[in-house]
Design goal:
Elements lengths: L7 H7 L3 E5 L5 E14 L2 E13 L6 H9 L9 E6 L9 E6 L2 H5 L7 H15 L2 E6 L3 H4 L2 H11 L5 H7 L10 H10 L4 E4 L3 H9 L4 E5 L10 H9 L14
Parallel strand pairs: 5-6, 5-7, 7-8
Antiparallel strand pairs: 1-2, 2-3, 3-4, 4-6
Amino acid sequence: MTQTKFDSKILSILEDKIQLIKTNENGGIYLVGPVNLPVNLFEETVNFQWYSWLNYDEITEDYNQIIEKLSSVNLAELQQSSVLTYGDFSYSDDAIIRMHSICHTGDIFGSKRCDCGFQLKQSMKNIVEHGTGALFYLANHEGRGIGLFSKAMAYILQENDYDTVEANEALGFVDDARNYSDAIHVLKALRSKPVTLMTNNPKKLEALKNAGLTVLKRVPLWGDRSEFNEKYLKTKINRSGHIEEEETFSKN
């Protein structure tokens, strides 16, 4: 294939916005950004800085080659993750973060079967109120890593009295197949100082600590409990090991 030579102006604009994060000898992560992203958050416009990253099996700092290769691939058919930063994320002494797994039904459609949509918006609100932080949006985590189609099948099993864990395992999956290594590489590239983590999931906390990151504290993120997701939330605690906070299920 003949290599396309992109206009020097295009390259000069993009090369300062593309960062290579080497993960091993033969592969790495390309991080593009920041891009100014005004977001409608609870009827208020808030300016975040948006990055997207792509895990790639070739390492090169020839940006013409990178852009040319990517333009020949239908990236819309692949999942690429994002991170939204707010405030002086790289240098602030105190930053709060959320590792958020994509939930097509909860984040986009507002499904009440889970609490993901609530957690997404609430974590963004918490970041803004805190003054600096980042939301990592992990696009390959749908259905705890089983994918959207398999998640739909798991939902059908849940409608036939399987809980979340039982449904995933009945389809041949483990309860939770998610991996946070790429997000952690990106976090380390953007910030070297300690962070506060918003999560109910001790596996996320463990993943950051095992990667050598200093986590100052964990902030719980429960809410939007309803008749539609009560069993789901209790399964998170009783089967998946999520940390229950006092009062989480005390109200009727």
